[in-house]
Here is the input.
Amino acid sequence: MDEIVIEALKKIEAITEDKVLTYLVRIKKDAICLDPHLKEVRVLANQDS
Amino acid sequence: MKKLAELLRERMKVDGLSVRDVAEVTGVSHSTIARAANEETVTVSTLVALCTFLGVPLSSVLEAKENPDAIFEQISRVLAIEPELSGVFGDIARKINDGDLNKKVLAEIAAFAAYRVERYDLAYNEMSLAD
Here is the structure.
């Protein structure tokens, strides 16, 4: 398998993993009412960083 | 990852392999193999190891689109949800234009990105169920 492809997939994995984890942490803390709109997931994750 | 799980379970059944057998051959932990067979999320490293083990291309487990319009639409949808991925697709586009990469891989990368951002939906649904 092409190393360039694997590298791209790993970048995608890293970017999306952080967002999902942050989102789940938020859910566990139950500290905020999340907007169901998907873009809000990204905004909330950015506020944490 | 449904398609990967189906192929893995089928191979294990046909060859009479246990989860530990597959773990030994692939070098992936048996718990990860079990998760993959149960359609759970796997890392890129595991995905590559299992595709190699199964002898199938990445495109077959990612259910990549073949139609250029469908691929473009998939990328557009992914970037609408996760704009940060635009850098990855920009790099890939440059490498394709430079002739360093076959454009067929774009479908695989798009399919993987779509699979990953769909997890945002899953996370939200889990929260909804918890409520």
Remarks:
- Residues 2-62 of chain B form a domain with the 434 Repressor (Amino-terminal Domain) fold (CATH 1.10.260.40).
- Residues 51 and 58 of chain B are 6 Å apart (CA to CA).
- The two ends of chain B are 26 Å apart (CA to CA).
